Amino acid sequence: METETAHKRGSSTRRVLVLADDTKGMVARTQALAAGLTNREFDELVKRGQLRHFLPGIFSVAGAPLTVRQKLLGTCLWALGHASHRSAAHLLELPGGSSELIEVSTSRPVTHPGILVHRRSPLPQCDLTEVDGVPVTAPHRTLLDLGAVSSEATVETAVDEARRRGLITFAQLRWHLAAAGKRGVRGTAKLRGRLFRNSPLPMPVLQLPVFRAREFLGRCDFAYPDLKISIEVLGWKWHYGKRQWELDLRRRTHLVAEGWIVLEFTWDDVVKRPQYVIETIRDAIKQRSFLLQPPSGGIEEKRTG
């Protein structure tokens, strides 16, 4: 009987260790039960000190040092969420990340001392990824989230680093920024500030769709619709090839025919010659604002007098 009990104990331990190996040393009670352990067997492992309590329903294997990744994974298992904001930046090795904070996002109403929980609706799959087994927000989403909790200078540095490493392109960031901005997502203002930093210009509309009657002409990277000014940053486009070039040319022709001023800049213009970009846009705004001004009262009086 004693041999049989020891065999069962050893079998239970092995199953938990195999499960923990797949989850970086962290085990949820529900996972262990789903793997075939009974509540009694699981409680025995905890009682004998082979499993240590980490969070409600979450345990770590005894003897294994708790790393930041393990803590984040255990927290994600507990919250049924994903590492986000500064924790996500840490996992993605981006500026603004913190190994001291445990920061997760979830749709569940959970709280726990020492854990910063962001409640929000479930994110689309394109906003999520995985780093070393830990569910985490994708780079573009992490940058948006950083904008809500970090300084503009930190976000700016993180954007540059993510772009340098090929984690994002400005076209992708621009698209996600435009989509998130429409939903009122916190953090988008600082990213817009990154794209138009040190500029006295009014904030333009991002990714403005333009129509002629019911015909869709295309989208402007940035636009002042009231003034019919379109601003295109060529280095941010992610489409190439003859077909796309023809579509871009046609869109530009239609915009000009509809009375739009189309200003085109390269990424080098934005980075290396920002004053030139600012002055060109400012001149276009002045030109359009002057043309759209109603006649002054003095001219009207002279005409009627």
Describe the structure.
Helix content is 49%, strand content 19%. The longest helix has 21 residues, at 2-22. It has three domains: 12-66; 67-194, no CATH class; 196-305, 3-Layer(aba) Sandwich (Endonuclease, Chain A). The strands form four sheets. A four-stranded mixed β-sheet has the order 9-10-11-12. Strands 1-3-2 form a three-stranded antiparallel β-sheet, sandwiched between helices. The chain has a three-stranded mixed β-sheet with strand order 4-5-6. The protein has helices at 2-22, 29-34, 39-47, 68-79, 85-91, 139-149, 152-164, 170-182, 188-195, 242-257, 267-272, 274-292, 297-304, and strands spanning 26-28, 51-55, 58-61, 82-83, 103-106, 116-119, 128-131, 134-137, 205-212, 215-224, 229-233, 261-265. Helix 8 (170-182) packs across helix 9 (188-195). The termini are far apart. With 305 residues, it is α+β, with helices and mostly antiparallel strands. The model is unreliable at 1-7, 236-240 and 298-305 (pLDDT under 50). A hairpin with a 4-residue loop joins strand 10 (215-224) and strand 11. It contains 13 helices and twelve strands.
